[in-house]
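Much of our argument rests on the idea that a fold can be written as discrete symbols. Part of our work consisted of pairing the sequence of a single chain with a tokenised description of its backbone. No coordinates are needed to read the tokens, only the vocabulary itself. The record that follows shows the chain in one-letter code together with its fold in token form.
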Amino acid sequence: MALAGIKDIGQDVSGETQVRKILVIEDEADISRVIDLNLTAEGYDVACIHDGAAAVGLVHEVRPDLILLDLMLPGMDGLDICRRLKADDDTRQIPIIMVTARGEENDIVLGLGLGAEDYITKPFRVSELVARVKAAFRRRDELSPATDVRNVLEFGSVILDRDQHLLSVDDTNIPITATEFRLLDNLLSQAGRVYSRELLVDIAIGDDVYVNERTIDSHVSSVRRKLGPYRSWIKTVWGVGYRFEPQSAKDS
């Protein structure tokens, strides 16, 4: 196992500031070194591993606050790693950003469907990667709802619990990423309102990160799958965006 950058992660020397922990799972040493140097310069505590087979165990050891995950890895590919982490209650809520040269839509949709938070394709600008990391942390920090809003949104058997960050469909808890949660929260809280793709990008991804329309479409597709028999409650408004329109009965 090639491992670099593991530090005594936690409080700083003053004992007051909690340092964000980022685990980089990337088999190209030059790329992981660039990521490590730049994220460390931003004040993050970074660990790097190049072996996919050992990555899941290291996640449990390091307990990172965010994972940057390549898809093409030796030992175990990134999609399998993502699948295992999102199936484990201890690691399910860790945001994952896929970093990959595989930009095909099927790979992106599959990764987001497994629970990845976001993706960035190689080659990438370091500034964009840093912005996506910051946006992921900001979304996670902003998940706590304001005190003057309803904390549970309920439409029949679809329930979104803001306090517990849970989506329940037909009495079954469905794993959901922070990005998907923000999308669904806004669609449900103003049912019937049409949200443009541009607005949904600002809500779910952040206005300081450039993404194209395919990104938000992929997230919406993932949310629809997680709604199961109620997937058609998210309506496509052609040429504009999406709206949430609950119906009285399940879709066939």
